[in-house]
Design brief:
The protein has 200 residues and is mainly alpha-helical. The protein is 64% helix and 4% strand. The chain has 9 helices and 2 strands, in the order H-H-H-E-E-H-H-H-H-H-H. A two-stranded antiparallel sheet has the order 1-2. Helix 4 packs across helix 5. The longest helix is centred in the N-terminal third of the chain and has 22 residues.
Length: 200
C-alpha cells in the first residue's frame, strides 16, 4: 500500500483515473494468471502484482526519478524495476522465498507493459503519425514551361498536395491570384536561383 501511495498519484494524474484503474486491474489479472500457471503453489494474497504494474508505469514515465529505498538508498526508478525483475526471476527459480508469488510480480510488470504499449498505439498522437505516413501517394505532375525549377523531391505527400493545389490555381488564374501565404509557402520549394523568375 505504501508503494501504491508513493507511485500511484502521479501515474493517475498522467493517465487519468479511468486508465489508471484499467492499468491496475490488468496488471493484477496478468500477475494472477502468470503465477497460477507457473507457480500454483504460491499463495495469491494482496495486490502486489497490481502495485508492480503501477511501479512499472511510473518508471516508464519518469525513468530517472530517484527513489529512496528505506528512505536512505537512492536508485533511479528504471533501475528499481530492472533489479526487482532480476530478483523476482532469481527468487522464483531458486525458491529462496518459498510461498511468495514472484511470478505474480513479473506478470504485473508484463501486463502493465502491454497495457502501456496499447495506450501508446491507440493514442491520438500515434493515430496522427500513422495518418501522416499512410497519406495517399500523389502522382508527380509535369510542370508547364513557365513553372520549371520547382523542386518537389523529398516533399511529404500532404505538402505536395498543397503545392499542386497552388499550381492549379496559377494555371487557371495566374501568379497574381496567389495570396501572400500561398506565395510564401510555394517559395519553400523553389531553388534560390529560380526565385526571381517566380516572383517577377
Amino acid at each position: 500500500m505504501m508503494g501504491l501511495w508513493f507511485f500511484g498519484p502521479r501515474v493517475e494524474v498522467r493517465l487519468g483515473s479511468t486508465r489508471f484503474a484499467q492499468l491496475y486491474l490488468v496488471a493484477g489479472i496478468t500477475g494472477a494468471l502468470l503465477s497460477s500457471a507457473l507457480a500454483p503453489q504460491a499463495a495469491l494474497v494482496g495486490a502486489s502484482a497490481a502495485i508492480f504494474g503501477v511501479m512499472l508505469a511510473f518508471a516508464s514515465f519518469w525513468p530517472h526519478e530517484k527513489i529512496f529505498i528505506w528512505g536512505v538508498f537512492p536508485i533511479e526508478a528504471r533501475w528499481l524495476v530492472v533489479l526487482s525483475t532480476l530478483f523476482a526471476l532469481y527468487a522464483s527459480r531458486t525458491g529462496i522465498e518459498a510461498g511468495v508469488a514472484h511470478y505474480a510480480h513479473l506478470g504485473g510488470y508484463a501486463g502493465a507493459w502491454l497495457f502501456l504499449r496499447w495506450l501508446d498505439a491507440t493514442s491520438d498522437a500515434r493515430r496522427f503519425q500513422r495518418k501522416m505516413h499512410e497519406a495517399p501517394k500523389i502522382p508527380e505532375r509535369k510542370l508547364a514551361d513557365g513553372m520549371r525549377g520547382l523542386n518537389l523531391e523529398g516533399v511529404h505527400e500532404l505538402s505536395r498536395a498543397e503545392v499542386n493545389r497552388i499550381l492549379d490555381k496559377i494555371g487557371a488564374q495566374g501568379m497574381a491570384s496567389l495570396t501572400p501565404q500561398e506565395r510564401t509557402f510555394l517559395m519553400n520549394f523553389v531553388p534560390p536561383d529560380d526565385r526571381k523568375r517566380w516572383t517577377s
